[in-house]
Write a structure and sequence with these properties.
The complex is a heterotrimer of chains A (427), B (319) and C (498). Chain A is of the alpha/beta class and 427 residues long. Helices cover 47% and strands 15% of the residues of chain A. Chain A has a seven-stranded mixed β-sheet, with helices on both faces. Chain A has a six-stranded parallel β-sheet with strand order 2-1-3-4-5-12, sandwiched between helices. The chains are: A alpha/beta (427), B mainly alpha (319), C alpha/beta (498).
Chain lengths: 427, 319, 498
């Protein structure tokens, strides 16, 4: 009886094997050959007519496998991005996008990249950043293209890696954009005459630059509105404030001239004690607005119900936030639109096909792209309708196709015209 | 009688048989799907080696009929402290020694505490799990950048290659096998796991066996921590978080009876760790690495365990 | 000739590759207590379990009261009039005595779905009184009663159904004299009522005393049936093992001398209510017998001597050195075979090799540490050969062996390492006669070599037959000491035990 089962196990394996033959849309070429071809073609392109490359030269007949690293698969933002890639991009272009399991640390990233490389992925687009340097090195060593899906590299990192052949680049809000986002957010309420704020610091305790810069923007706006001699712990300009936050690893509540920071919560502990702190902060007497460097409505929305406190978040365009806005739990959203990851996909795809887009001096991309700002539920709904559409998303195939053959200048221009109005104007 | 012996022999070999089948399947399917097989094999070794080492050390504990739920956290703490020490001394050898030293201390702490308070050891490991998890957060906050402790990648790059890792695994495995199968310690531990009452009446001291087992396991944990640092030098609070569960799955997959005793096999860990990784890789080939893939993995897991323990069910055990 | 009530014709039963019954035909008569005896594996339990509905035969027919008999279950059989009492525990501890007696049959007390407890307890008590076990309260929790009382409950449960045929399968070995008397009384009652009893036991003396006829089985076949007049111990033993028993069963000599050197000593040892101000000396070359009722404390004594139980006061010393624990005892070459063999003396799911080798590291391991398979095997094989352990090979699981062979493995474990002092608790329990004899001879041999043996046993014949000195215990104290003598009899001893 047990012997029979052992044989059955072997048979099941064999069936799997045979089943594997039929299942996928595969190329018959080996990875090494295509890679060699790509390198050769790339060298030519660099030498000669770098900018002009007829669309006909791009051979899109063979399916290209691209690995996607995700460190977070359940937030609204992650789901929106995935939706755009699988429901739109994968259907419009001859690519197979393979998603990793949710990664929790750098070792997971390395394993996932190894697995992608083993399975002949030609490129990797990464939403995970536990160890950015290791990822880039790993891909460069294996001759696999690597792109940062959202976010940017630090200045030092960019300096180190911009010359790497297989590092495609990053398109995301630059630190300046982040700073500006925080600044505008705070200013929106300061202009309304508000003076009492609380700040949610997100990943500031982990020294995540984008959150620090957003908070710095908020504090600078407050310093400017705080009157004569207003300062945050002695710092009164952008650089000094950034420095201060880096030193402290947190925002220290207190008075900034006439403006008051009544409370601060940071991190993502998400245990009972931490949620308690969030609720307590949201219910501080005289509080007028909570400015969040990341998601705000999820953590503070329920606590402010029935009050007039406003919540401002930096997040994505997901239906739950629309509901939050309509329900009064969210008042201001600086959000990523899901099609924002379209251009980086095109840049990666082009690199695989042998026509990479690099800067004038041959460096990787570091383009800036920012948020759509919704100040009301109506704003949100308008933006969301476009963003969540799988027939005509913000960046449609027609628009992205122009990027396939664009030169660096045109590419940069396209990406930097990221506001909702500008994009609608492009269509 | 002879037929029964033969049947028992085959049952014991099922996990090995499974490994061979999985390996062959990986090679054949890989060829068909046209993947980069040599890279894949390298990747499999990288992904299996930490679990294989830690699990081999853990076999000593499981043989006793005990278990240690804090192994993953131990690996993390040992790696973190090792990383911190490296950043202060810039010496790989010292880092390695510290990793192993810390891990052995944790193991001894578990077993000595249990001995002093007369508790079954797994109880102290449950408590240690919480303590170690808290310690991980404290270490990172106090000594790292708030979210990580990073050893410079350049420092470990030289060791981050397959032959080195295989050699480390092999050495540890051989030493473990020696102690397990060729010394009286291994025999006594198997006996203790098989029947603790009879073991006591045969002059075997339960506490002494536990302390030795946890010390061996500590060495495995320390080596595992060292290998973790080499593989991914940026250590966060999630480093080695899945090791605890992976160890249990690996040893069961490899044919080790979870209640320990006479049928314990020192090689179960290595077989199981590699089998698991091969299975995962095969699932990925069909883009089944979540959802359905997990279900298939679970089904095969149950089947393997059923076959491997078939001769034990239905018998009356004296516990 | 009394009337036949149960008849078995040409019955076969096989378990896997083992033939349990081979063309067995039996007749059971009314008004008779028929004994069934045989070594382990002879088939005696198999045939009665088939008669009482526990399992089915592969071939053959059965008749009960002249009609074809094919019971579907034990409950069915009991309803129809054939009941069986077994050796193992058959009661549920977590419920009352009355509930155990009427287990699965509480419907008779139900009105509108509610059980009338008072009536059940009343009827339960009546059942207990009927068998002479009035000391048991039908309302109390079964778990609080000892093994013997629980067995009596099972008996009451069976007798409540007033069976016409009662099978008693090795039940008496677990009972004290009181329990045995109750069973004998029931059996005789049934005999007088012209009903039938099938009595299975290992105890030859008991069977010869109690039965009217005796059927001997060996290797699944009926060998011979003796009528009471023909009962002869040697003849019966010969038919059981299939050959003439060579030599003596116990010792042939009556020389109870031993060395003067005291190898082990207990001084003023106290342990709860098990041992009270206990003083004992064991000498070189002595076989010391310890007897008493089950709860007299002698089993605890064995453990204290081996260092497994620490006394609350007093001293245990070996050759002058105080004993601390088991490892200490082993270092002083003391060995211990526990009464509960399967749990305390053996690791059942380990091999014969493991079980013997575990005691001998100081002998075959290099520097008492390094184990080389070659040396280990040699060490184990020596014991297997010298003790004639019947097994396929040394890597076989010990659980597959018969009781006698298991005990041989236990002996091998202690003798192999050169134990000088052996403490044996019920060493021949569940062991076949042939093997028993071999063990007795071995013990005598060891005595001659100057080793010391302590035999703790509930079998008086064994103690009388083997001991140089016989100590009777009661309630944790030594009541009487006997020297080896030809004229010593069981009745001499019993009066001090009770």
């Amino acid at each position: 009886m047990k012997k029979f089962l052992a044989l059955f196990l072997a048979a099941a394996m064999t069936v799997c094997m045979l089943g594997g033959c039929g299942g996928s849309q595969e190329t018959k070429e080996t990875g090494e050959e295509t890679g060699a071809q790509t390198n050769a073609t790339e060298a030519d392109a660099k030498e000669g007519a770098r900018n002009e490359q007829a669309a006909a030269d791009l051979d899109m007949s063979k399916t290209v496998k691209i690995g996607i690293l995700v460190s977070d698969a359940t937030t609204a933002e992650a789901l929106a991005f995935r939706n755009y890639y699988t429901e739109y991009i994968q259907k419009q272009y001859n690519v197979e996008l393979i998603y990793s399991d949710e990664l929790t640390d750098a070792a997971g990233e390395t394993s996932a990249i190894d697995t992608f490389i083993t399975n002949n992925c030609k490129a990797i687009i990464s939403f995970s950043s536990f160890d950015r340097a290791a990822q880039i090195e790993q891909c460069e060593g294996a001759s696999v293209y690597y792109a940062v899906a959202t976010g940017t590299l630090t200045e030092e990192e960019y300096e180190t890696y911009k010359g790497y052949e297989y590092y495609v680049g990053a398109i995301g809000p630059s630190l300046d954009v982040e700073y500006e986002t925080g600044y505008q957010m705070a200013k929106h309420y300061l202009d309304q005459g508000m003076t009492n704020f609380a700040i949610y610091g997100g990943a500031i305790p982990y020294y995540t630059e984008m959150h620090i810069y957003r908070a710095a923007g908020m504090l600078t706006a407050m310093v400017e509105a705080g009157g004569e001699g207003a300062n945050y712990k002695g710092a009164a300009d952008r650089d000094a404030i950034i420095q201060q936050i880096f030193t402290d690893g947190e925002i220290v509540p207190g008075a900034i001239g006439t403006i008051n920071v009544l409370g601060y919560v940071g991190g993502y502990d998400m245990d009972d004690a931490w949620f308690g702190k969030c609720t307590q902060m949201a219910q501080t007497p005289d509080l007028q607005a909570i400015l969040a460097v990341g998601n705000g409505s999820d953590f503070f929305g329920t606590a402010i119900e029935g009050t007039d406190v406003k919540i401002a978040s930096v997040d994505a365009y997901a239906s739950s936030y629309g509901e939050a806005m309509t329900g009064g739990m969210l008042d201001y959203l600086a959000g990523k639109f899901s099609a924002s990851i379209g251009p980086i996909f095109i840049a990666t795809y082009r690199a695989v096909l042998g026509s990479p887009v690099r800067t004038e001096d041959g460096s990787a991309l570091a383009l800036s792209q920012g948020y759509w700002i919704a100040e009301s539920a109506d704003d949100f709904n308008t933006y969301y309708a476009v963003d969540s559409s799988v027939e005509t998303p913000a960046y449609t195939k027609e628009m992205l196709d122009t990027l396939l053959t664009a030169d660096y200048g045109a590419f940069k221009e396209f990406v930097e015209a990221y506001s909702f109005e500008e994009i609608q104007g492009m269509k | 009688m002879k037929k029964n012996q033969l049947k028992k022999y085959i049952m014991n070999l099922t996990p090995l048989f499974g490994l061979v089948v999985l390996f062959a399947a990986f090679l054949i399917l890989g060829k068909i799907q046209d993947i980069n097989i040599s890279y894949g094999l390298k990747s499999i070794i990288n992904q299996s080696v930490v679990v294989a080492v830690v699990a081999t050390g853990a076999i000593f504990i499981y043989t006793l009929g005990s278990f240690d739920i804090s192994l993953g956290a131990s690996v993390a703490v040992s790696a973190l402290i090792g990383g911190m020490v490296y950043n202060k001394t810039e010496n790989i050898l010292i880092m390695t020694a510290v990793c192993i030293g810390v891990a052995v201390l944790i193991g001894l702490f578990n077993s000595v505490l249990a001995s002093v308070f007369n508790l079954p050891v797994f109880v102290t490991t449950i408590a240690m799990l919480s303590v170690l998890n808290a310690l991980i957060l404290v270490l990172i906050k106090v000594n790292g950048t708030g979210s990580e402790i990073a050893v410079p990648a350049a420092a470990v790059k030289g060791l981050n290659n397959t032959p080195f890792k295989v050699v480390v695994l092999l050495l540890f495995f051989l030493v473990s096998m020696f102690i397990f199968s060729f010394t009286k310690i291994g025999r006594m531990q198997k006996f203790q796991g098989g029947n603790p009452v009879c073991a006591k009446l045969s002059g075997i001291k339960e506490k002494k066996m536990a302390i030795i087992a946890f010390a061996m396991s500590g060495i495995g944990v320390g080596i595992g921590a060292f290998l973790s640092i080499i593989y991914a030098p940026t250590l966060t609070k999630n480093t080695a978080s899945s090791v605890g569960m992976d160890v249990i799955i690996a040893i069961v997959f490899g044919g080790m009876p979870v209640s320990g005793g006479a049928r314990s096999k020192i090689y179960a860990a290595v077989i199981g760790a590699f089998s698991m990784t091969l299975l995962s890789q095969i699932m990925v080939m069909f883009n089944l690495n979540s959802g359905i893939g997990q279900m298939v993995k679970a089904a095969i897991f149950i089947l393997v365990v059923y076959l491997a323990t078939s001769d034990q069910r239905g018998k009356m055990l004296p516990r | 000739m009394k009337k036949v009530i149960v008849e078995v014709k040409h019955m076969d039963k096989t378990f896997g590759s083992t033939v349990a019954l081979n063309d067995v035909s039996i007749e059971v008569r009314r008004g008779e207590i028929q004994g069934l005896i045989g070594e382990n594996g002879s088939g005696k339990s198999t045939v009665t379990s088939i008669i009482s509905g526990m399992q089915k035969a592969d071939r053959g027919e059965m008749f009960f009261r002249g009609e074809k008999w094919e019971p579907s279950s034990m409950l069915f059989a009991l309803e129809k009039g054939i009941g069986m009492i077994v050796q193992e525990n058959g009661t549920v501890p977590g419920i009352t005595v009355a509930e155990n007696i009427f287990l699965g049959e509480t419907d008779q007390f139900k009105t509108f779905g509610i059980v009338n407890r008072k009536e059940m307890i009343l009827k339960g008590q009546q059942a207990l009184d009927a068998i002479g076990a009035s000391h048991i309260d039908a309302a109390q929790m079964t778990g609080s009663l000892d093994m013997q009382d629980r067995k009596l409950i099972e008996i009451a449960k069976t007798m409540v159904k007033k069976p016409e045929v009662l099978v008693v399968d090795e039940t008496t070995t677990a009972l004290s004299q009181i329990g045995r008397d109750i069973i004998y009384k029931i059996m005789n009652q049934m005999k007088e009522e012209n009903k039938a009893v099938i009595f299975i036991s290992h105890d030859l003396d008991e069977i010869m005393q109690v039965c009217d006829s005796l059927t001997v089985l060996r290797d699944g076949k009926i060998i011979v049936t003796f009528d009471k007049e023909e009962f002869d111990e040697d003849r019966i033993k010969t038919s059981m093992i299939g050959r003439e028993m060579q030599g003596d069963y116990y010792r042939s000599d009556y020389d109870g001398s031993y060395g003067s050197e005291v190898v082990m000593e207990m001084q003023d040892v106290n342990l709860a209510d098990q041992l009270k101000n206990f003083n004992l000396q064991i000498h070189k070359g002595e076989i010391l017998g310890i007897g008493g009722l089950s709860h007299c404390g002698m089993h605890t004594l064995g453990k204290v001597l081996f260092g497994a139980c620490r006394p609350s006061s007093g001293k245990v010393s070996i050759r002058g050195r105080e004993l601390k624990d088991e490892a200490d005892a082993m270092r002083e070459q003391v060995g211990y075979a526990a009464k509960d063999r399967d749990i305390e003396s053996l690791c059942l799911n380990a091999s014969i090799r493991d079980n013997i080798a575990i005691g001998g590291f100081n002998r075959f391991a290099i520097h008492n540490f390094l184990v080389l398979p070659g040396r280990e095997k040699k060490y184990v094989q020596k014991q297997i050969d010298e003790l004639s352990v019947k097994c396929a090979e040394m890597n076989q699981d010990v659980s597959a062996l018969s009781g006698g062979n298991k005990q041989k493995v236990v002996f091998g474990k202690w003798i192999g390492r050169g134990s000088e002092i052996l403490i044996l608790d019920c060493p021949t329990r569940g062991v076949d006669i042939g093997v028993k004899q071999a063990m007795y001879q071995l013990m005598y041999q060891m005595k001659k070599e100057g080793k010391s043996i302590v035999i703790i046993s509930e079998e008086m014949a064994e103690l009388i037959g083997m001991a140089d000195r016989l100590i009777v215990m009661k309630d944790g104290e030594i009541k009487k000491e006997f020297q080896r003598s030809e004229s010593l009899s069981e009745s001499d001893i019993i009066q001090y035990m009770i």
